[in-house]
Amino acid sequence: MALSTQPYKGARDFYPEDKRLQKHIFDQMREVVESFGYQEYDAPLIEPVDIYLAKSGEEIVNDQLYSFEDKGGRKVAIRPEMTPSVSRMVAARRQELAYPLRWYSIPNLWRYERPQRGRLREHYQLNVDIFGVNDISADHEIILIADSIMRVFKAPTGSYTIRINSRKLVDFFFQDQLKLSDEQFHEATKLIDRWHKIDKADFEAQAKEVLSSDSHYQKLLELLDSKGLDELPTGLKSHASVEELRKLMSLLKESGVDSAGFDFSVIRGMDYYDDIIFEVFDTSPENNRSMFGGGRYGGLVGDFGVEPVPTVGFGMGDVTLQIFLELHKLLPALESEVDATVILVGDVYEAAQKVLTELRQKGLNISVDGTDRKLDAKIKNAAKAGVKYAIFVGEQELKTGKFKLKNLQSGDERELPSNDLVTEIGR
Amino acid sequence: MALSTQPYKGARDFYPEDKRLQKHIFDQMREVVESFGYQEYDAPLIEPVDIYLAKSGEEIVNDQLYSFEDKGGRKVAIRPEMTPSVSRMVAARRQELAYPLRWYSIPNLWRYERPQRGRLREHYQLNVDIFGVNDISADHEIILIADSIMRVFKAPTGSYTIRINSRKLVDFFFQDQLKLSDEQFHEATKLIDRWHKIDKADFEAQAKEVLSSDSHYQKLLELLDSKGLDELPTGLKSHASVEELRKLMSLLKESGVDSAGFDFSVIRGMDYYDDIIFEVFDTSPENNRSMFGGGRYGGLVGDFGVEPVPTVGFGMGDVTLQIFLELHKLLPALESEVDATVILVGDVYEAAQKVLTELRQKGLNISVDGTDRKLDAKIKNAAKAGVKYAIFVGEQELKTGKFKLKNLQSGDERELPSNDLVTEIGR
Q1: Nearest to B412 by CA among B402, B424, B395, B398
Q2: A27–B contact, CB cutoff 8 A
Q3: Is A396 helix (H, G, I), strand (E, B) or coil?
Q4: Residue A370 and residue B135: Cβ atoms within 8 Å?
């Protein structure tokens, strides 16, 4: 029986046109994060399963981890996220590294999920982290980078919003003010994460059940409805976490970020965030959802037996980003990397080697069609492959050193010496 | 108990200096293969296990495959090689694709092996394939690319050799001339693969046992000792495969490849090669071994239920290449991607945002040190991180628009307006 040509369910094949788009997206990301002084690292795609058991959310570990035993009996997993790996790497060189440490990576991550729009079993995720900075400047820089990436893709003002919250504020409100039990608190955070997703009546019913109090529900509603930090109830307005949020907003404004605002419903699923958190939302009605986010976390490096390092970071997935870019028509039409196809006329493959080498050494990307198909078929084929130019090389051309160049898009033809070919094709 | 900071056994962490080197190596590879008109593709790192059972060598499937059942009961494997994946992708679009099809990829591949020098459990492998060309021009192009990659790394003439053989010639000699049984044939190919690795007396003893004939051994020895195609025994010299090899050698010479020669001991492990095969050897006494290789194969696309496509390709691993480059001192010293660190003097983080944005938008990669450490500590730290320049920004500088630039390598200091900083740092 023939093998299936389908890729593994929930995973993608990247044909050259897909890979070209991916490279364009990654190049733009790299340009931004490197301009902020971040350096790229990577880690193995397999890790000992232990490093996920400690801090990754329960859902990931129990239901979504690609875990197995290797042939030596070691329990391992394909990475579902990058944070445990990068924390391990920082811990391994805790003393030697220079802080503030700015690192990024674009790993391929795997989770066993039911494939659906915007959620596959694998995606690439830009991970950006700054290690070793205690004050709000790190939170500011990370959010500024997230915004700069949206802008490098030319996302118009208003097409996305950056919603910011503080876990410390969440803790203070639910634990110190409402005095919820641990279980209630857990349920309450899960619920507010759904604030923008479910309708208000459903939310009210569920909130009243979780909080088991009408007045608590009213207080929560007031918080969720706050349009800014100054509108917060008096008991919260002066909390230290709100002071931090206020400084952050001021810094963001000063550096030109105009899409950021406070939103108490932002929670982030991961268990390890413990201070400022943020999410970037697509505002279009067709795709009104969180695209990516991040925040501050302290504990992960410490789990590896060294002194903890304060860290702020975010992870931005390629699948959700690409949906955003498509929806807002921000994906450019990218040309083939092949500049020209040399079409051989007659049995001149060996004789043409010198001119082929010359064109390539001058920086052109040149494929060659030495098949015995008819000229017409060769031209058609080059056009089908998306190549812009054809260069015809036969005995006559090799003798005179002049070559016919055909623009396959316009149909224009010119006869040029090889040097001028390079200029004309122009790279 | 603290988690281990070690990566999974046989796998590598890439700290920024390692990643920088990897990117340099991959960039060079991409430049060469793209100049020949090849386009990059990729496939999922997990594949259904079936696609390896058909054609990958037995050793891989039985002992080295990272295979497991996913949570839905599907038998899957982490890819140990790329050829089955790319064949699947070509088969899926057999009709729509334009031939000759030139594709490359640099996947991360996994095999469960005993880690040793030059052999880890994961490596990256440049895969270059041309699909749809029946004649020797494809074999020539692929070997020319392999040679061009060695040259782009400035490997000197004589530091490597390209050893070429033909599976058809091997088949003809062992099966038609010596009339070996299938089992003998299998043993004989495994043995000649060890020709350069074991000593001659051992080889003789083993060869006589496998071939069970003294005169067969003498014939084999004659073949292995042949320095060129013209020295081959009369019964082989005129075989069609030798005619092909002769054409190939002539083409390679014409295109400036001077490291290639015939070597009957080249076999290639993979079961699917069926015609011209080649290996690139490091000639240095410290590392006298095969670095990488490839050849022509026909069947793999056909295994997916479509008409087969003739293919020639090779796979070049990053670990062995890097050992070669280190040994021959061909690895350049690469500078940090960070152009300069802005050292803030006083509480000016917010006030400095404009100049930071300006420097970044002009193309500089700028990190910022806003910690409250002493100035000396900050300068030391920037130097430790390998950054070449420090720019000092305090209230005074923000007022005058002139900034002190310190070259951390030479110690030189200059005072410059922000525009001139960009020119001086120069990117």
Answers
A1: B424
A2: no
A3: helix
A4: yes
What's the CA gap between A102 and B370, in Å, rounded?
Answer: 13
Helix H segments across B7-114?
16-35, 50-53, 58-59, 83-92
Spatial separation of the C-alpha atoms in residues A216 and A184, rounded to whole Å: 12
* The two structure tokens encoding residue A79: 């990475």
Q: How many CB atoms lie within 10 A of CB B233?
A: 12
pLDDT tens per residue across all 427 residues of chain B: 789 999 999 999 999 999 999 999 999 999 999 999 999 999 999 999 999 987 666 677 778 999 999 999 999 999 999 999 999 999 999 999 999 999 999 999 999 988 888 789 999 999 999 999 999 999 999 999 999 999 999 999 999 999 999 999 999 999 999 999 999 999 999 999 889 888 999 999 999 999 988 999 999 999 999 888 988 988 899 999 999 999 999 999 999 999 999 999 999 876 689 999 999 999 998 888 899 999 999 878 999 999 999 999 999 999 999 999 999 999 999 999 999 999 999 999 999 999 999 999 999 999 999 888 899 999 999 999 999 999 999 999 999 999 999 999 999 999 999 889 999 997 5
Q: Does A346 touch chain B (CB under 8 A)?
A: no
Sort strands B340-345 and B311-317 into parallel, antiparallel or unpaired.
unpaired
Q: Return the H-helix or E-strand segment holding A205.
A: helix A200-211
Written as one letter, the residue type at B245 is: L
For a pLDDT cut of 90, what percent of chain A falls above it? 84
Separation CA B216–CA B233 (nearest Å): 13
CA distance A56 to A166: 19
A18 neighbourhood in chain B, CB within 8 Å: 41
The pLDDT of residue A58: 67
Q: How wide is the angle at C-alpha B319 spanned by C-alphas B314 and B323, nearest 5°?
A: 110
Residue B289 sits at φ, ψ, to 5 deg, of -160, 165
CA distance B321 to B281: 11
Q: pTM for this one?
A: 0.95
Nearest to A104 by CA among A136, A141, A62: A141
Instruction: Tell me what ipTM this predicted complex has.
Output: 0.95
Alpha-carbon distance B243 to nearest alpha carbon in chain A (angstroms) = 16
Right CATH for A340-425 from 3.40.50.800, 3.20.20.220, 3.40.1180.10, 1.10.760.10: 3.40.50.800
Burial class (CB in 10 A: 0-12, 13-18, 19+), B28: middle
Indicate the average pLDDT of chain A: 93
Chain A (147-176) residues lying within 8 Å, Cβ to Cβ, of chain B: none
Tally of helices (H runs) and strands (E runs) in chain B: 16, 17
Percent of chain A as helix, strand, coil, to the nearest 5 = 40, 25, 35
HSE, CB side, 13 Å, CA atoms: give it for residue A201. Answer: 0
The architecture (CATH level 2) of A16-327 comes to 2-Layer Sandwich (3.30)
Longest CA span, chain B: 93
* Every domain range in chain B assigned CATH 3.40.50.800: 340-425
Instruction: Classify A132 in phi/psi space as left (phi over 0), alpha (psi -120 to 50) or beta.
Output: left
Whether B425 contacts B407, CB under 8 Å: no
Q: What phi and psi, each to the nearest 5 degrees, are found at residue B397?
A: -65, -40
The amino acid occupying position B300 is L
DSSP A257: -
What are the start and end residues of each CATH 3.30.930.10 domain in chain A? 16-327
Q: Find out whether the peptide bond into A16 is cis, omega within 30 degrees of 0.
A: no
**A37 with B112: Cβ contact below 8 A:** no
Residues in chain A: 427
Chain B nearest C-alpha distance from A70 (Å): 7
Q: Closest Cα partner for A304 from A64, A26, A85, A111?
A: A85
For chain B, say whether A117 makes contact (Cβ under 8 Å).
no
